[in-house]
Design brief:
It is a single chain. This protein has helices spanning 137-149, 152-169, and strands at 25-26, 31-34, 38-44, 56-60, 65-72, 75-81, 94-98, 101-107. The protein is an alpha+beta fold. The strands form two sheets. It has a four-stranded mixed sheet with strand order 1-6-5-4, with no helix packed on it. A hairpin with a 4-residue loop joins strand 4 and strand 5. The longest helix has 18 residues, at 152-169.
Length: 173
């Protein structure tokens, strides 16, 4: 049996450096104002005026906007509206830095006034018979709505009131 000498060559590896995903603090405190052609969002951030323009990234679509702020006092911040009330022109979004605040301007596609900056949830539309058919029907419909849309405490209170009312109508049952 013959053996061949095994020669080993050192394996050199280059360390894989991956930058961890950036974490962001959510900016959820803001105010806004609008004209018929634009919406201005006012965000208070202490020291924001000291950052250079490379610290800001604006991502906009026709129905959403996101502003990323990197390195403000060692932290990253994110302002995001994933759905806007109306459409905007993404390419026309701008921001201005003021002392301890930032003004984000979005140009509207249509010259209208928005009811809010975000769309409001639609109420369920329910088809019902006319309340004039039965005078108590209107009140019952209101109670049904309160029960369906209420939290657990509201549901418990309505059920208790209904049970007590029923028990008064049929004593000894």
């Amino acid at each position: 049996v013959t053996s061949t000498p095994v020669t080993s060559t050192p394996v050199t590896s280059t360390p894989v450096t991956s930058t961890p995903p950036k974490s962001y603090l959510t900016i959820d405190c803001y105010s806004y104002d609008q004209s018929s052609t634009s919406v201005n969002v006012f965000i208070r951030l202490e020291g924001v005026q000291e950052l250079d323009k490379d610290s800001f990234v604006v991502n906009a679509t026709s129905k959403s906007i996101e502003l990323l702020i990197h390195g403000l006092k060692g932290k990253n911040h994110r302002f995001k509206l994933p759905e806007l009330f109306g459409e905007i022109k993404p390419e026309a979004c701008t921001y201005k830095l003021k002392t301890d605040r930032l003004v984000l301007t979005m140009k509207k596609v249509e010259s209208t006034n928005w009811d809010d900056i975000k769309p409001q949830p639609q109420k369920k539309s329910k088809s019902r018979k006319s309340d004039t058919e039965d005078p108590g029907a209107g009140l019952m419909n209101i109670m049904k709505d309160l029960y369906e849309d209420g939290d657990e405490e509201t549901k418990r209170m309505i059920a208790k009131a209904w049970t007590e009312s029923r028990d008064k109508k049929t004593p000894g049952f």
